[in-house]
Amino acid sequence: MATLLIVEDDALLLDALTGQLQQLDFSVCTASSVAEATTVLQSQAVDGIILDLGLPGADGMELLTWARTHIAGLPVLILTARDGIDDRIHGLNAGADDYITKPFNMQELQARLQAMLRRARQPAFTQSSSASGGPSTTIGSLQIDHGHRNAVLGGEPLELTQREWELLELLVNRCGEVVTRDDVLAAWRAGPPEPGQAAAAPLNSNALEVYVHRLRRKLDASNLVIRNIRGLGYMLAKPAE
């Protein structure tokens, strides 16, 4: 049975979430502030966090930063009313594994929680340090160095454009989960234009299809598959153990 920490200051929502997750066989502990949540995390082990951002006293992002510093690999799902693209990008770039905005669908929350927890238990997916000391991720035969923004597949360097790298990193960071088209396009728009590409070059679903096709071809020699999830986006399937 997985244990979840819910960090939420709305008492009614906290009670409702707790009850529904317990019915789904989760063990639940709760906190209504960053200070309370930190105390819980220092006193007991949990398998994942559902984190609100608008908390009294200190912002939920402070807890995310603390958790990323003190508890390696702990899955965090942000559940918040902050629905701006910049907020979502900031939360994911700060280390959240997923981001859902309120109001939300309980079935979707359940599905995303289970996907997040499965990914955290996936033995083929490991996070470590690269030879240069920076953060790296290995999944199957692919290793990516986040600090130097490069990738190695089967011991051979992968030649990637800036957009291909950003797409690959996003898919790897959320391996086994759906990455929506909007997620990719938002990440692209938040960064600088690709070298040699005009700043006004369109970033749309058609352009995304082209980059997904190119990235699939570059991963052909591996056991990594980028799946189309109809009507939603894409998912990097977990390699067979």
Automatic annotation (TrEMBL):
A GO term, aspect molecular function: phosphorelay response regulator activity
Residue intervals of the OmpR/PhoB-type domain: 134-238
UniProt domain Response regulatory: residue ranges: 3-117
CDD domains, per database record: trans_reg_C
Transmembrane segments: none
A cellular component term, taken from the record's GO annotations: protein-DNA complex
Keywords, comma-separated and alphabetical: DNA-binding, Phosphoprotein, Transcription, Transcription regulation
Single Gene Ontology BP annotation: regulation of DNA-templated transcription
Classification via PROSITE patterns: OMPR_PHOB, RESPONSE_REGULATORY
Keyword DNA-binding appears in the UniProt entry: yes
Superkingdom as given in the UniProt entry: Bacteria
Gene3D superfamilies: 3.40.50.2300, 6.10.250.690, Winged helix-like DNA-binding domain superfamily/Winged helix DNA-binding domain
InterPro entries: CheY-like_superfamily, OmpR/PhoB-type_DNA-bd, Sig_transdc_resp-reg_C-effctor, Sig_transdc_resp-reg_receiver, WalR-like, WH-like_DNA-bd_sf
Record SMART domains: REC (SM00448), Trans_reg_C (SM00862)
DNA-binding region, residue range(s): 134-238
Sequence positions bearing 4-aspartylphosphate: 52
Protein name (database record): DNA-binding response OmpR family regulator
